[in-house]
Amino acid sequence: MTEVNFKLAEEVELLRLVTVGSVDDGKSTLIGRLLVDTKGAFEDQLLAVRKQKGQEGQVASAAEIDLAMLTDGLSAEREQGITIDVAYRYFATPKRKFIMADCPGHEQYTRNMVTGASTASAAIILIDARNGVMPQTKRHTHILGLLGIPHLIVAVNKMDLVGFDQAVFEKIRQDMQAYCEKQGVKDLICIPMSALDGDMVAVRGDHLGWYEGKTLLETLETLSTLGGIDALPFRLPVQLVNRPQTADLPDYRGFMGTIASGTVRVGDRIVAVPSGNTSTVKEIVTFDGNLEEAFAPQSITLTLNDEIDISRGDMITHVEQKARDAKEITANVCWIGSEPLSERKKYLIKHTTNSVKAVVNSIDFRRDIHTLDKDAADELAMNEIGQVTFKLQKPLHCDAYADNRVTGSFILIDTFTNNTVGAGMII
Fold first, then answer.
1. Would you say the pTM of this structure is higher than 0.85?
2. Whole-number Cα distances in Å, 139 to 20, 21, 377
3. Beta pairing partners, 392
4. Mind listing the GO biological process terms from this record (predicted)?
5. What is the distance between the alpha carbons of residues 405 and 387, in angstroms, rounded to a whole number?
6. Cβ proximity of 265 and 281 under 8 Å
7. For position 91, what pLDDT does the model report?
8. Which of 368, 366, 336 is nearest to 138 (CA)?
9. Whole-angstrom distance, CA of residue 327 vs CA of residue 18
10. Cα separation of 118 and 111, whole Å?
11. Could you tell me the domains of the chain?
12. With bands split at pLDDT 50, 70 and 90, how would you rate the model's confidence at 370?
């Protein structure tokens, strides 16, 4: 990348994206197209993925590049022509920089998709214009809705294979709007395109004159990135207690962690949970020096004016905005374990820096991904989604996921295998 691009990366704001969809809808090709058209791919990468091997010299045009190969980095992905794991790619424009996660489309890799989408502020849902809305598309869309992704963009791809027919696009747009309205998605944008040829990706092209909206890149550049995370109540999950025990710092005791949400200032009154002890902030220490104020998602060390009991897994909040203490939680669960989730089973809930033993008290319902109806269920199989109530061994200091995506989410760990088997969003 040029020096100019590096300077741009330092000055413009960041948008985290995720691309999802069914198998062969063209996710990797779309990201490859964006990388090529925004000059986000290095020359040696372009040379390595030329369609015609053995040629020397620079790549002459995008047509000579196997776009999907720019993101499919695993040898198994290249051999099978599919995406298996999440691939993260960076690109930038003069207006904004982007980190995009290319998630696998196969149902068996839904767990990877949940990982890639968990930190995104916007999602691109690819749909093959020939196939319309597929079951895996609905599953991904439902998960994105549960994760609270603020912006959903439906990219109706491969329009060149249906003759750029507007009626095909309108049918898919109506189907997706009807599905998303059922789960309260408010910001849904639908764009027709051909990722292979580039129509409506970074440039308008010559074949979709009937579509009057913005290109995909223009849309991404104008989406709001204000998540308001620094305006939420202050939450600092304690990751480590720092006690240097040196001659220069004989009484130093700092509480280290990444601010999950909100803002903290020197002098603020704080409370530590679960102990309930209170104090005031003495210092906000960082690698680059002390601060008067810090905000999410900065990593900091807090020192306090009083000696109070705080350890890893505790949470520091403002006195007037404490987190909820719950010994029973109800959550939407995306189940990704090979063995089904069932009542009375025991798991470990990993929430921020805290771990709590839990038992499944009840499976309230399983969600039908086609109709979004609530079906009675006594277990959740792999890739199924449902509402589950857990009883906890000790109180969890949490928020509702709708209020705070960091302190309202958790993962479930099998206590016997130590495998991650589920992702939960607290209601």
1. no
2. 10, 9, 18
3. 358
4. sulfur compound metabolic process
5. 17
6. yes
7. 86
8. 368
9. 34
10. 11
11. 3-225 (3.40.50.300), 230-321 (2.40.30.10), 324-426 (2.40.30.10)
12. confident
CA distances from 311 to 98, 240, 280, 354, 356 (A): 36, 7, 17, 10, 15
What's the CA gap between 385 and 31, in Å, rounded?
28
Pair of tokens at residue 371: 């109709």
In angstroms, the CA 120 to CA 221 distance is 15
**Structure confidence by residue, pLDDT tens digits, 84-136:** 456 788 888 888 999 988 877 555 656 667 777 878 889 999 999 999 999 88
Higher pLDDT, 40 or 342: 342
- For residue 231, what is the DSSP state? G
**Beta-strand pair 87-92/97-102:** antiparallel
Q: How far apart are CA 341 and CA 70, in angstroms?
A: 37
Whether residue 411 contacts residue 419, with contact meaning beta carbons closer than 8 Å, is answered with no
Q: Which residues pair with 133 in a beta bridge?
A: none
Contacts of 292 (CB under 8 A, 6+ apart): 265, 266, 284
Structure tokens at 75: 């040898």
Strands 278-286 and 269-273: antiparallel
* Burial tier of 134 (Cβ tally within 10 Å: 0-12, 13-18, 19+): middle
Encoding tokens for residue 8?
């741009």
pLDDT, one tens digit per residue, over 65-81 is: 566 666 554 444 444 44
How far apart, in whole angstroms, are the C-alpha atoms of residue 157 and residue 302? 49
The 3-state secondary structure of 147-178, one letter per residue? CCCCEEEEEEECHHHHCCCHHHHHHHHHHHHH
Check residues 192 and 75 and name the one with the higher pLDDT: 192
